[in-house]
Structure prediction request, 229 residues.
Amino acid sequence: MKDTGLKAVGFDVDGTLIINIGYCWETFHDRFGVSQKIRKRLKGRYLDGQITYKQWGSKEIAIWRELGVKRDDFIAVIKSLRLVDGAIETLNVLRQTGLYLFILSGTVSIILEEVFPTHASLFDRVAVSHILFDDAGRPVDFDPGHPLRMERENKAAELESLCQETGFAPEQVAFVGDNDNDVGVLRASGLGIAFCPRSKNAACAADAVVEIPDLKYVLPHILKRVARQ
Ligand SMILES: [Mg+2]
Prediction:
């Protein structure tokens, strides 16, 4: 019989591990005053395939640089964000259970470094993007990370990459996410959990929906599906 017991759990960041946020890029744009018209034009060019994800991120960062935004301004925005309730406790339980834990997110590393500085010790793999700053604190470039060797923002394809690398089958992986960009990976994984979903599509794509904003409520769904050791 095929072993579909869970061996790994992945998490989105914006709106899942970190709250008071939908997508961090939108939050930064809102706070730095970038017009909807400019954002829509760039997003459209990306969606039409005219620019890559890396080029899209680099262009947005160039806009912030031209506006005179510095690293401290990002930090000021990040101060309004916080780690979701129950995060540490939940991640510790999952680790003790022997599950491989990973982050798969379009967020940027500066957010995790500020809000969740101990994250590296809790996760086996962290796949996020990076804003690069110069010595004066100006944002100068974008590194999409590519830790899973795929174009970013296709989380289902990134899950496939992770599975090839680790030897897990997608059915042995649970994923916790909240928004439209999680739909593919929620469907592709063995247990998709929509956590306080901001998107109806994410809720529909998931096997379970948790509406209480405390991460420990994902535990019962995951633990009953854990592989027998
Ligand atoms: Mg999210």
Observations:
- Residues 102 and 125 are 5 Å apart (CA to CA).
- The beta strands are 8-11, 18-19, 82-83, 100-108, 125-133, 139-143, 173-177, 191-195, 208-210.
